[in-house]
Amino acid sequence: xIQLNDIQAVIIGxxxxxxxxxEEAAPYLFLGFTIAGLLHVFVQDEQxxxxxxxxxxxVRSALNATLxxxxxxxxxxxxxxxxxxxxxxxxxxxxxxxxxxxxxETGVDSIAITYALLDPIMTIFRPIATLITALSAGIAENYxxxxxxxxxxxxxxxxxxVMQAPLSCSDSSxxxxxxxxxxxxxxxxxxxxxxxxxxxxxLLGDISKWLIVGIVFAGVISYMIPADLIHTYFxxxxxxxxxxxxxxxxxxxxxxxxxxxxxxxxxxxxxxxxAFVFLxxxxxxxxxxxxxxxKFLGKRTAVLYLGMIALCSMGFGFxxxxxxxxxxxxxxxxxxxxxxxxxxxxxxxxxxxLIPLMIYGIYKEMK
Length: 367
Fold this sequence. Notes:
- The structure is a single chain.
- By secondary structure, the protein is mostly helical.
- The protein has one domain.
- It is about 75% helix and about 0% strand.
- The chain is built from 17 helices and no strands.
- It has helices at about 5-40, 45-50, 60-70, 80-90, 95-105, 110-115, 120-145, 155-165, 190-225, 225-235, 240-250, 255-265, 270-285, 285-295, 300-325, 330-335, 345-365.
- Helix 14 (about 285-295) crosses helix 15 (about 300-325).
- The longest helix has about 40 residues, at about 5-40.
């Protein structure tokens, strides 16, 4: 019979593992959110949309959309209104698809937390794989898709307001978007303040609950699941990767929240390639995104969208395992090693500072 003391020990153990992971990530989350806030206020939307239309060419429009999307920290739900706005503004279907894939798969915040919880190899590999996946899907759509009749372009200002307007997602748990602010009327100091408000109130509020869920699940995996179980059944190979692909595609999880889960699985013996399939496929899409792509871009585009994500996820998973094997690196032994150079006191201070911001963000999103 399970004793109360046993339950308490399990809860304390999971909490300790979750807190450890949160501490490791906290300084890098601050860095990532700060950069995200500065990008939000200093990179103009008019310039972003200018290079994504058919006049830019089939390859260049997809490349531009991919490069624009990589650093922007939007979840796979929040990216929908921005992508649809780009499409209505005159972006090609391929550019829209590239933006739709590259944006939620990585962001400056998720790249920072990847460095903290995983290792430099994965930190470099993740955005490169994202770039190739999104670019491949965009170019394929532009060349293989039916020729489009471009809609009349609306004013840039109107589209920017669409991109910035609050979104009520079909997934009630997600409220992505931001209040409309005319950044052109703000001074540099006011822009910085607005960027920090966006980063630590809106953006942090959007992902806080999912980040907490990800960290807690990582704590459960780290404390409860035996290493030999993961190593035996998910240590690597095509079946393990297919299983992670089937889990990742319909699941709603942001790039930042998926990282602690991947770190916990790798630490328990999962091959880095198998974990990477989840890192690539999980944030890139979910059930709501698939529905929206089918409705607004068409069934054929939705099939290409899912097919390219699945193909690239598996391909990059095998490639990553090959890289680690040939370098003679045991991934489970170096998970989180990048953050070991930072003093524990600093990591704890950032974690403590982050908690009230996350609580406030969640409270604001629930109002």
